Amino acid sequence: DAGITQSPRHKVTETGTPVTLRCHQTENHRYMYWYRQDPGHGLRLIHYSYGVKDTDKGEVSDGYSVSRSKTEDFLLTLESATSSQTSVYFCATGGPTNEKLFFGSGTQLSVL
Amino acid sequence: SQKIEQNSEALNIQEGKTATLTCNYTNYSPAYLQWYRQDPGRGPVFLLLIRENEKEKRKERLKVTFDTTLKQSLFHITASQPADSATYLCALGINAGNNRKLIWGLGTSLAVNP
Fold first, then answer.
1. Contact: A100, B49; criterion CB under 8 Å
2. What is the DSSP letter of B17?
3. Which of A22, A28, B54, B84 is the most exposed place for a label (fewest CB within 10 A)?
């Protein structure tokens, strides 16, 4: 997976609790992305980063925040998890030209 | 409305045959189109990128065509093998202000039977 590590791989949590998902890359790619993948919706962009401390919203950003304090790390936080945030979350980096994406193996999050 | 569509039904073919997957879109003017492979429990893996001014691209047993008039891309796997069984996603790269945006299809599941 091109040096992209997501943690945890699986998480079960309760509604209303905060959750942080981690993405670590060893490729020194400038752009990083958080997607969620749900049946019938495909991949949807939550947030992305174009450099350290530089982030922007994607199409489904409500209820999520991100931080990027180092080139290699991109964190996704659900401040107060809801059942609608049950999904598979993928981190990706944009590669040297930010065209093709390199994905991590995903985090399966269940909010009960 | 803007949308991107892939064959919704799973494709089952015999080993050795050519698999052809379709990606159609409406109301976009893409700069490029990409194809990814996704295996169960894994993230998508990039396969090929074809630009708006290119008609065809090949990589080993893979071939992609891109017709911006028909607004369609075809993805071919020749001499298919059971190991090619996976879900294949297409993604349109479109310009959005100063950035590029990827619009994803839902994917087509391919099963290659021995």
1. yes
2. S
3. A28
Mutate to test the interface with A, among B46, B92, B98, B103 (most CBs of A within 10 A): B46
Contacts of A32 (CB under 8 A, 6+ apart): A23, A25, A48, A49, A68, A74, A91, A92, A93, A94
Q: Which residue has tokens 């909010």? A: A111
Partner-chain contact A90 B43, CB within 8 Å: yes
With vertex at residue A84, the alpha carbon angle to CA A81 and CA A86, rounded to the nearest 5 degrees, is 75
Q: How confident is the model at residue A2 (pLDDT cuts 50, 70, 90)?
A: low
DSSP label of B18:
P
Q: Do B89 and A106 touch (CB under 8 A)?
A: no
If DSSP codes are grouped into helix, strand and coil, which group holds residue B41?
A: coil
Note the pLDDT of residue B95. Answer: 81
**Environment class of B78 (CB within 10 Å of its CB; exposed 0-12, middle 13-18, buried 19+):** middle
Give me the pLDDT at residue B27, please: 85
Per residue in A38-61, pLDDT tens? Answer: 998 889 999 999 999 999 999 999
* pLDDT tens profile B87-104: 999 999 988 776 778 999
Disruptive mutation site among B104, B108, B109 for chain A (greatest number of A CBs within 10 Å): B104
Question: Which residues lie closer than 8 Å to B69 by C-beta, 6 or more apart?
Answer: none
Tokens representing B74?
């075809």
Question: Are the Cβ atoms of A100 and B42 closer than 8 angstroms?
Answer: no
Whole-angstrom distance, CA of residue B73 vs CA of residue A41: 20
